[in-house]
Specification:
The protein is an all-alpha fold. The chain is built from twelve helices and two strands, in the order ααααααααααααββ. A two-stranded antiparallel ribbon has the order 1-2. It is elongated and about 60 Å long. The chain starts with a helix and ends with a strand. 35% of the residues are buried.
Length: 229
């Protein structure tokens, strides 16, 4: 791609802060080939530049970014892995869950917490099961992150595991648990009402159709034709 000279100078600067700014600027160019240049910066010697490159790729939400984000998930610096976990969730790629599952076992809780957030973006049953399991993470922040996300994405089956946690949770976590349970119950109730309204509408519609049909008497018995409206 034709990179503006001002951005190229920043990307080639000896100052990592300048290189990071160059990566951000490159992401705003709205050029499909920018993905290649930003991905190249994942090989930068400074973790900050690599982290900004990961965040920028995530913001682009381009499927072409996926392989680079998977590579970044294995970076030696936990802050880069953390950024990759967030970004992988934004891709919407089902294949991302495999990489995120590995990050859920990262030694740094910040990475595990970001991976929980990434998993939460998928909102399917398998992801909810993973989130329920992560409520048992030994780190308070990770467990609470999983609880919060379940509150936003969980279903009826998520309620009992959360209720069981109330017996062992500390005071602050109980607040998050009760809030999450309330969110799920409210959502389920709302969905149930929508379902009931749909059933009623179908029933009323059937009755209207029935009334508009023409019922004819049996000609063999001498019955007359009867039009019911």
């Amino acid at each position: 791609m034709n990179i503006p000279e001002s951005i190229r100078e920043m990307l080639n600067s000896n100052n990592p802060d300048q290189r990071a700014v160059g990566v951000r600027s490159l992401g705003k160019q709205k050029d499909p080939q920018a993905v290649l240049e930003i991905s190249r910066m994942l090989g930068d010697s400074h973790w900050l530049v690599r982290r900004i490159a990961v965040e920028t790729l995530g913001d682009l939400k381009d499927p072409c970014c996926f392989p680079s984000l998977v590579t970044a998930a294995g970076d030696e610096n936990w802050k880069v892995r953390q950024g990759a976990a967030f970004a992988l969730g934004y891709t919407g790629e089902s294949k991302a869950k495999e990489t995120l599952a590995k990050l859920l076992e990262d030694e740094h809780w910040q990475v595990r917490s970001a991976a929980v957030a990434g998993i939460g973006e998928f909102r399917d049953e398998h992801s909810r099961q993973i989130l329920i399991k992560m409520t048992e993470d030994p780190n308070w922040n990770v467990a609470t992150q999983a609880i919060r996300i379940l509150g936003k994405t969980g279903c009826q089956e998520s309620i009992n595991p959360l209720k069981k946690m109330l017996n062992q949770a500390d005071r602050q976590q109980k607040v998050h648990l009760r809030h999450a349970i309330k969110q799920i119950e409210k959502r389920c109730q709302s969905q149930g009402m929508d379902s009931d309204n749909t059933d009623k509408a179908k029933s009323n519609n059937s009755r209207k159709i029935g009334k508009s049909l023409s019922f004819r008497g049996c000609r063999g018995c001498g019955g007359d034709s009867v039009e019911q409206t």
